[in-house]
Design brief:
Layout (H helix, E strand, L loop, with lengths): L15 E5 L2 E4 L1 E4 L2 H5 L8 H13 L4 E3 L7 H14 L10 E6 L8 H15 L6 E4 L8 H14 L6 E4 L3 H9 L6 E5 L10 H9 L2 E5 L25 H13 L2 H18 L3 H10 L4 E7 L8 H5 L8 H11 L38 E4 L2 E7 L4 H6 L4 E4 L2 E7 L14 H18 L7 E8 L5 H12 L5 E6 L9 E8 L7
Helix pairs in contact: 2-3, 6-14, 9-10, 9-12, 14-15
Length: about 500
Amino acid sequence: MTDTSTPFAGSSIPERTTLSEGFEISRIVTGLWQVADMEKSGTDLEADVAARAMLDYVTDGFDTFDMADHYGSSELIANYATKLIQQEHSLGKQVIPRIFTKWCPKPVEMTTCVIAAGVQERLDRLGSSSIDLLQFHWWHYENPNYLDALRELERFRQDGVIANLGLTNFNSDHLKVVLGEGVNIVTNQVSYSLLDRRAAESMSDLCIDSNVQILAYGTLCGGFLSDRWLGVTEPESGAIADWSKMKYRRFIKAFGGWEKFQMLLTSLSEIATKHGVSVANIATRWVLEQPAVAAVIVGARLGESEHRADNLRLFSFSLDEDDYEVINSALQKSDKLPGDCGDEYRKAPYLTASGDLSHHLTAGEKNYPRSLMDNRPSRSCISSHTSWEEIGGFSRAVREGDHIFVSGTTATDHKGKRVCEGRIEEQAIFILDKIIGAIQALGGTAKDIVRTRIYLTNEEHWETVTRVHGRYFFDQKPANTLIVVAKLIGGYEVEIEAEAVVAPLIGD
């Protein structure tokens, strides 16, 4: 929680907050994702020059940095900067940068070796024996291997190799699943801004209830939420060169377009004038004041663009009731971004720099290999690798022509482990992911599902499971039957089956 008992006189340094016992950070985190943009020509930044730029941030109290495995050479720069502080900086070892990094593996099988290699690469690049905060990202929930990864990362945390474990771009449902598996999560890094208020809904409630804190990125929407863009004509697509602005231009479109965006900027400018600060200050302060938000991540182009003095003004004022009334009035005229946190990386419309996942992943991974049936060219099937499929002689799913039939499915992973024991909502989430993954492996999508059947052993659970079903299928509404039974084999409390009608497979 934010330490409000020790205000920083004259806002000489940023406010601080505690993520976990003994781990205090700045509430303004310097984000280094633009290092990748600065290096997209193929030339790495000069490590010593970039590292000394980091030292300037540390000296001014901005001692917390966010980076990732795919943010170019950012981890190497952090390594160099830490050594410089230890060797020659006047503050010496009294100043220890707080380093956040991310591991964003491709959606492949998460073996112990793969996970250990991912962690070791972070340690090697950072030149450290422990990672302050490792944040895990997963691309497709239909691939359940993310739980294998997080269970193993939790063991690394317990061993001290990872000091704190976080997530990035997880939605509310799957944060629940992770927590239900007993993984100790302290943060979820998600997009949160005046344009993107998805985190203000179920995510904030869940984080508050679960003692998980939000690290907000995209707060300034690539710099669009600033005085610079007030009264400016909408730029042509070809006039935007950097990835950040390419991405957040899509957010502006989803917000309702440039005209509504300008209305918001005008309102923020009025409030900024009142407090004697910048539009960026107002936009950032609004996020900082939201429940569950520990810190905001403000991007920096090391050695090129620095805004530390302006960011310090964030702690010289608070928004009052009149300010919120003005902001809310502007927001009421805008559109809400669709879905939950992180959906921009998992479903259309993809609110990414490229408008798809092409600069992140080359192609979507199929969770289960498809097998053709002998002498039945129209039939194919997949297995989810549970032991009873082989013993009982059945498939997780079968495709005959343009129809897919998914067997009754429980919250059991490929190792036979029950997922989220005793937590009915989380089990329903896992089951529907598993069903959709099976359908995808046979050439369909979630939108092809035309019927579901839900079996419950406890009538009291009907609303919980129905609400999960509604979140998955609110826009397609398949036929559904909900049945309360005396007992399910294996002592399970919920089982779901599904049918889908799809277009012919290419090549069939």
